[in-house]
Amino acid sequence: MGIQVKDEQVAKLIAELERSFPKLDFQSFKEKVDQALEVKKMKENQIENMLILTAVERIDRNEPDWTYAAARLYLKKLYMLSSDFRGEAGYGSFYELINSLIEIGIYDSKVLTSYSREEIDYLEKVIDPERDKLFTYIGLLTMAERYLARTQNGDFAELPQERLMMIAMTLLAEEPKEKRLQLVEEAYWRFRTYT
């Protein structure tokens, strides 16, 4: 019989992780989580951080996939943190995001003079949010802390695949229009392999 995590929401999250990473041994992870939850009452963000750190401390050569489990936990947190600005957790309208970031002075309005609404809508369909699940913990943390666009208040506004697409769009904005979207798409596909 396995260890039962007492907090229902946390248990559900751990069960989801177990399904995603069936080769990992979650018994000691669950024990540590239960012990931490018994010691003191924690706020939601404290529980998130505790789960991430508990996963990170298990990364070793025998179970290297803990880096992906920790990344998955951090990704959930990142989606929620960005929802304060975006109004929703996870990916949404790329065009609306670009407009919002232009309005607050984070993006240059040149993006909208270089690309039409139709082109941006097409590129939104190219974005593959599933690729976020391929980041290691340190890769995702580095992407978030150093490269994702944030508001003036420090809130996350952008998500990893949007950042990669914006890099491709910016680099190739001056290419001839008849082949530019294809080049942007190719560049995005190359960038996204660096997770």
Automatic annotation (TrEMBL):
This is Ribonucleotide reductase. InterPro entries: RNR_lsu_N, RNR_R1-su_N, Rrm1. Pfam families: Ribonuc_red_lgN. Keywords: Deoxyribonucleotide synthesis. PANTHER family: RIBONUCLEOSIDE-DIPHOSPHATE REDUCTASE LARGE CHAIN (PTHR11573), RIBONUCLEOSIDE-DIPHOSPHATE REDUCTASE LARGE SUBUNIT (PTHR11573:SF6). The keyword ATP-binding does not apply. One of its GO terms (molecular function) is ATP binding. Residues 134-189 form the Ribonucleotide reductase large subunit N-terminal domain. It comes from the Bacteria. One of its GO terms (biological process) is deoxyribonucleotide biosynthetic process. One of its GO terms (cellular component) is ribonucleoside-diphosphate reductase complex.
